[in-house]
């Protein structure tokens, strides 16, 4: 984006057009920054040793010499989608010695990407997949916002590692589960993933429509393709220490915090979070009678989430009961993945 055209001369100080934020634009800017900064040998060392990128081609090694600088970069980043390319661009800007204009080009592209939205605060305390009584939490350190589960912690899972800039993939969740459950390294990632899948699925109980969404997404892990965002079920968003029963006993109408749990969460990056909600009639009616109050609470919470930087998508329970529901959900996930490329 550094060229100068006749339009530049005509427009003078007119506001610049927004940069095109896409995987293609990030890939191009990354390649230009690295190609024009490093020699072929230095570039190989930067990619492998400084950035520690995984080599993608099993049948040939980068040192064999048949790769140009551009081909070398593409071999290391083959198949990468937008979140991973954005994360790599940030590392190049922050960690490498890159020429001034090339660094500026990447920085401008990152700024345009960040301007598009997302959640500013880092994710902490990912509590999810409860398959029993509600966990009870306390603030162990209110200054640092550190929480501790003091009761019923055995029924939920807690991922307390930093969320990488390129998101929480199923592959990363598998490695966390391996350590959590003490699986030996000899146990394959596929077998650990199957065990994790069963535990996550158990948190959905007998809810057939949520199971349909979960199982349809899990089909995307086929052929050991685990390096995609994990679909995380039953994620706590707010915490109300009182139960509904105790509030009713005290004469209170309900929780002051709407939607304590999200049905599903996808972390495409440390900033980009997608919430999926499956709506049964309890979300908008009392019995079989439509409830404007329940509906208004639901849409108000959606607004709050969107203003906080989340994307929210809803499925109606009735549409998930149709014969072609699995096909519809699969197409939705295809379209969502395409948006992230």
Question: How can the largest sheet be summarized?
Answer: 4 strands, mixed
Overall shape: it is globular
In what range is the share of β-strand residues? 5-15%
**Total domain count:** 2
Low confidence ranges: 1-18
Please state the structural category: alpha+beta
Write out the strand line-up for the largest beta sheet, numbering strands in chain order: 5-6-7-10
Fraction of residues in helices? 40-55%
Span between termini:
20 Å
pLDDT averaged residue by residue: 81
| Radius of gyration using CA atoms only | 23 Å
Q: How do the helices and strands follow one another from N- to C-terminus?
A: HHHHHHEEEEHHHEHEEEEHEH
Number of helices: 12
Number of beta-strand segments = 10
Q: Can you summarize this structure?
A:
It comes from Leucobacter massiliensis. With 341 residues, the chain is α+β, with helices and mostly antiparallel strands.
């Amino acid at each position: 984006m550094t060229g100068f055209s006749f339009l530049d001369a005509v427009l003078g100080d007119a506001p610049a057009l927004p940069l095109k934020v896409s995987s293609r634009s990030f890939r191009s800017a990354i390649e230009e920054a690295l190609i024009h900064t490093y020699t072929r040998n230095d570039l190989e060392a930067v990619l492998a040793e400084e950035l520690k990128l995984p080599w993608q081609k099993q049948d040939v090694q980068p040192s064999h010499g048949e790769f140009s600088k551009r081909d070398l970069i593409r071999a290391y980043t083959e198949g990468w989608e937008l979140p991973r390319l954005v994360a790599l661009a940030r590392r190049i800007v922050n960690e490498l010695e890159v020429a001034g204009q090339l660094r500026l080009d990447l920085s401008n592209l990152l700024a345009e990407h960040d301007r598009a939205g997302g959640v500013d605060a880092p994710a902490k305390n990912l509590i999810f997949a409860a398959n029993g009584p509600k966990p009870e939490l306390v603030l162990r350190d209110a200054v640092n916002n550190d929480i501790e589960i003091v009761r019923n912690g055995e029924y939920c899972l807690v991922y307390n590692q930093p969320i990488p800039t390129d998101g929480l993939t199923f592959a990363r969740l598998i490695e966390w589960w391996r350590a959590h459950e003490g699986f030996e390294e000899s146990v394959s990632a596929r077998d650990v993933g199957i065990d994790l899948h069963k535990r996550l699925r158990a948190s959905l109980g007998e809810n057939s429509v949520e199971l349909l969404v979960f199982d349809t997404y899990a089909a995307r892990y086929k052929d050991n393709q685990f390096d995609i965002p994990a679909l995380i079920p039953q994620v706590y968003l707010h915490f109300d220490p009182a139960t509904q029963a105790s509030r009713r006993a005290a004469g209170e109408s309900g929780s002051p915090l709407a939607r304590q749990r999200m049905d599903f969460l996808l972390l495409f990056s440390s900033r980009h979070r997608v919430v999926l909600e499956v709506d049964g009639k309890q979300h908008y009616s009392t019995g079989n009678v439509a409830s404007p109050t329940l509906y208004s609470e639901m849409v108000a919470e959606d607004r709050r989430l969107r203003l906080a930087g989340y994307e929210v998508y809803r499925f109606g329970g009735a549409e998930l009961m149709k014969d072609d529901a699995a096909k519809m959900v699969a197409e939705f996930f295809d379209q969502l993945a395409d948006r992230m490329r």
